[in-house]
Amino acid sequence: MTDRKHNIFGVIPTDKVGWRSPSNIALVKYWGKKSGQIPANASLSLSLKESVSETIITFSPAKEKDFKIDFYLDNEIQEQFSKKIKTYLESILHSMPFIAQLDFKIESKNTFPHSAGIASSASGMSAIALCLCDIERKYFDKDSSDEKFFQRASYFARLGSGSAARSIYGGISLWGEVEGIRSSSNKFAINIDKDSDDIYKSFHDSILIVDSSEKKVSSSLGHSLMTNNTYATNRFLQANENIKTILKILKTGDLKSFINIVESEALTLHSMMMTSNPYFILMKPNTISIIEKIWEFRKETDVPVCFTLDAGPNVHILYPDPFEQKVKSFIESELLKFTYNNVVIHDNVGNGPEKIV
To answer: What is the pTM of this model?
Structure first.
């Protein structure tokens, strides 16, 4: 991305911007990175519709030499997040120098519960990146195209949280360089809906909450553990081959092959954690029970339903729209008993971020 030099003293008044941005669920997992938030392998995800972060940034000329950040989550000041976001903003000052001359009040809320197995960093950081790029476009780059705007937002979202790069787009997003995909990049994600069968754009994601406690392993730690993992090199090769295969599958609508890759990717992610040093088992007994029940149900009914997992015990159940009622009835009758307080969050693939202010 090209650095931009702005002399903005007295140009930006007190104002506000706001964006609603989705979480996403990775089908081919990003696990392991290089310096600069560069992924060790390409990843691919579905952006969700209902599981979103809504962020409003109010900004005004800085009152002191050092700019100030106040971050509110659900109307409560979060000192730790304020420091984290300030560090992030300081890291991108060379590209957005106007940041240094503003004070920020960031008000964010999620439509999903904390620790629900939904990536709040992806939705939250993508919403912040969209707001920052909105300020930039409003005052310095009014003629910027939408394509350029969202690409730039994906770039800056990536620097805050790798998976956030994919939340800038609705539908199906690809992040990471892939041979044969000229527009693919390690620095920002791209949308690949136009190259995908419509069946995938109607997918549902029902998230079964097995455990509502805090994550045992942060994403940062998980990625760092790949550095010395004995199986990391083969894993990265596997992921990049799976990307090439699933891109073909998305074009053809081959649900059986889609299921094989998605479930294998989920289990591989967890096997990487079990073979790291230190090692972790992130699944719970009920996670395994749910997976086995899904396998039994799919074998008995031929319903194309599958599971995926993030780095935790909660289970994402993926299925096409025509099978919604059958799968939801199955969840109610067979799977709720394995969840924490019968909590399940029903979502589906969405259209991406939306400007709200």
So the answer is: 0.95
